[in-house]
Amino acid sequence: MSQYFNDSPIERREDDRYGVHAFADALATSLLSITKPVGTTIAVTGPWGSGKSSAVNLIRAELLDRKDETLSVLDFKCWWYRGEEAIALAFLQELNTALKSSLGDKVKGLVPEMGRHVLQAGPVLGSAVALATTGGLGALVTGSAAFAKRFFPEKPSLEKTFRKLSKTLASQNKRVLIIIDDIDRLAPDEALGVFRLVKSIGRLPNVMYLLVFDRALAEAAVRQRFPSEGPHFLEKIIQASFELPLPTPSDLHNSLLVAFQERCGTPEEEYQVRFMNLFYDVVVPYLTTPRHVSRLINAITVTWPPVADNISHADYLALETLRLYEPSIYTAVRQRRDIVTSTSRSGSRDKTRFDPFLAGVPEDRHDRLRIALQRLFPAFEEVTYSGFRESWESERRVCLAKHFDTYFKMSLSDDTLSGKEIRELLERAGDKTFIQERLLRAATQIRRDGKSMVPVVLDEMTSQGRQVAKENVLPFFSAVFEIVDAIDRKEDEERGFAVATTSLRIHWLIRRVADDRFTLEEKSAIYLAATEHAPLGWLVDFVSSAYEAHHPREGREVDLSTALTTKEALPTLVDRTLVSLRQAAQVGSLLYRRDLMDCLYVWEQLAGDGGAEMKAWLADRMQSDDVLVLLARALTSESWTTSLGFGDLGDRVSRRVVRVSIRGDFDLFDTDQFRTALERIVREQRQPAKDLEAVRMFLDAWANQVARQLE
Q1: Which residues are the signal sequence here (predicted)?
Q2: What pLDDT digit, counting tens, does each position of 586-620 carry?
Q3: What's the DSSP call for residue 73?
Q4: Alpha carbon 381 to chain centroid, angstroms
Q5: Sign of CA dihedral 94, 97, 101, 106
Q6: Helix, strand, coil: what percent of the chain each, to 5?
Q7: Cα 336 from Cα 331, distance rounded (Å)
């Protein structure tokens, strides 16, 4: 990604940070498939800053890469001209140049002749650009009526000329695509003039148009000029319109984070949690389009170098965001240095303390901005801080008076499914093949953060779960259960503030779909049928949850309101799970499962023999060093701790901690012998380097864990 100060649209696929190239490729394919256009008009629409021009550049590049010799691509930059007449003349000039380039003398003089009729048919509106048939923009002239009379001598009628040109174009195996971008930059009458040109003299055989504009602005211009027309005006001109797909929020967020890291570096580890807190609470609400992201990146490119390494990364990014998008807040903070850097606040809950800063800001943003101010300045919080000044000083935070001026001394100082996809999932929830194909495909669709689309599909279905028809619940659950292991990716696990796994998401999904819609007996029948062909991983997870509901831990009572099945359904589920566990143990695949420890514990839990069968099998396998390494890996886990913070503000992200799943009541095997064997493996250095590193990490984490327990 370029680090130069630049707000220009992208031109290459490799610069696409938001997945626009897929849309561009699809539209390029559609354009190439139009074999006999007659002024066919396609529109790409989107709001300001959504990346329309970037999409057009990618479409153009894709068309050129396809090397279709029957298609010529021409750009008409309508916003270079001012006045309807100038735009009309420039449009005719570009059309004439394009047709002459592909058809030569066959169309000589026909477009200028049409231009003569068009310009002489109405009043002169202003200065015009000369229509030069030799190419180039020509000279800017005045007195367009006189110009048109000299340039367009008396010739046949417009209708005859149009028919002759149409006949000539229709007989050729050549097509012309005229791209007209930035129509929404024009004045309303000018924009409407472009639409009229395309609809009238532009409606020619083997000519098609790609119009790019903000539909809301265009429709507003139509309403202003033709109140009775409404959206019908554009519908009469445009045959197919495509709204530019909006980037996912995560793509916008990641784009800014990557750019920030490239320009400003990475905050030190001890400050990263706070950085992300401010990022989510202050920055993210303003990252709604690619243009917003670009604007902030451009600001960072200019304002960071003078203060680099002298201020907090987190405070800097938050303040730059406020400077760009909440200038009145930024100015109020700058003017009230003594208030925001005060250390004498006694934990006031009086919200009027925010009033001088929120004056003039729409009320619907007040709550968000109060949080922003609290994140930046402890003086606004409802608690009194003590003992934190040293940490704030180390980070060089803006809340300290000695660092405050550094932030302000410079004057300079952006995964969901479509509604259509969701509706199809709901309508076809009873189609087992469809559901499985969609989830398996989702597992192969990898997003920029490394996660697949599986969490997105499951989360969307969970939110809409009540809409799954009751008669479709059984086939829907069966479809999902049978492929849980196939779609369960470690990379899809959420870290930090929101912890989630694929299995946990499926638990949320089935409870959302079934709870309060079926009796416990009905749910039992559904789950017994749906798990009949379920893989081992999901059987272990589901049956363990169902079993524990009827066998709660000591001191707890059975709560049937949270039970998955009746107690009578458990024997069948337990037998089904034990059969799968024993089969996996026999063939050796059990040892290589990511959920090995869960499988061992559930085996012990369900077998009813105190774990004797499982422990005997495990002891036999532990004679192998390879198995010892596998167990060390399986017993090593990552956990994420989150500080609750002070007052109402806790951390937004969590810290990573490596843990060992061995406690005082661990009884699967002799832990002393296990430690001794692992230490021997490290000394002997016979295992692969990655395995040795895993064993060392396990032993170190185990030692640290024991030490903490002894403190």
Answers
A1: none
A2: 999 999 998 899 999 999 999 989 899 999 999 99
A3: E
A4: 32
A5: positive
A6: 60, 5, 30
A7: 9
> Cβ of 490: how many Cβ atoms within 10 Å?
8
Q: Note the pLDDT of residue 412.
A: 33
222 versus 452: the higher-pLDDT residue is: 452
Q: Residue 455 has which token pair? A: 């969490």
Half-sphere exposure of 487 (CA within 13 A, CB side): 31
Q: Are 569 and 524 in contact (CB under 8 A)?
A: yes
Nearest partner of 513 among 422, 419, 426, judged by Cα: 426
The predicted-structure confidence for 229-281, as pLDDT tens digits, reads as follows 666 788 888 888 888 888 888 888 888 998 999 999 998 888 899 999 999 99
* Alpha-carbon gap, residue 550 to 563, rounded angstroms: 7
- For range 623-652, the mean pLDDT: 76
Count how many Cα atoms sit within 13 Å of the Cα of residue 414 in the half-sphere of its side chain.
22
Report the C-alpha gap between 345 and 380 in whole angstroms.
8
**Per-residue burial over 406-445, b = 16 or more CB atoms within 10 Å of its CB, e = otherwise:** bbbeeeebbbebeeeebeebbeebbbbeebbebbeebbee
Question: Residue-wise over 51-85: b if at least 16 C-beta within 10 A, else e?
Answer: bbbbbbbbbbbbbeeeeeeebbbbebebbebebbb
Cβ proximity of 224 and 58 under 8 Å:
no
Q: Please, are residues 543 and 563 in contact by the beta-carbon 8 Å criterion?
A: no
Going by their DSSP bridges, the two strands 240-243 and 40-45 should be labelled as parallel
Task: Encode burial over 537-562: b for 16+ CB neighbours within 10 A, e otherwise.
Answer: bbbbbbbbebbebbeeeeeeeeeeee
The alpha-carbon radius of gyration of the chain (Å, integer) is 34
DSSP 616-665: HHHHHHTTSHHHHHHHHHHTEEEEEE----BTTB--SS-EEEEEE---TT
317 and 279 Cβ atoms separated by less than 8 Å: yes
DSSP code, position 411:
S
With a CB cutoff of 8 Å and minimum separation 6, the contacts of 561 are: none
DSSP character string of 177-194: EEEE--GGGS-HHHHHHH
345 vs 449: which has the higher pLDDT: 449
CA distances from 627 to 161, 375, 469, 596, 631 (A): 86, 49, 47, 12, 6
List the structure tokens of 510.
């089935």
Q: Torsion angle of alpha carbons 615, 619, 621, 625, nearest 10°?
A: 130
Q: Cα angle vertex 545, ends 513, 530, to 5°? A: 50
Record the tokens describing residue 57, joined without a space: 């550049």
The whole-angstrom separation of Cα 75 and Cα 177 is 8
Q: What is the mean pLDDT of residues 538-555?
A: 90
Burial class of residue 252, CB neighbours in 10 A (0-12, 13-18, 19+): buried
**Inter-residue contact 297 to 256 (CB < 8 Å):** yes
Cα distance between residue 501 and residue 545, in whole Å: 15
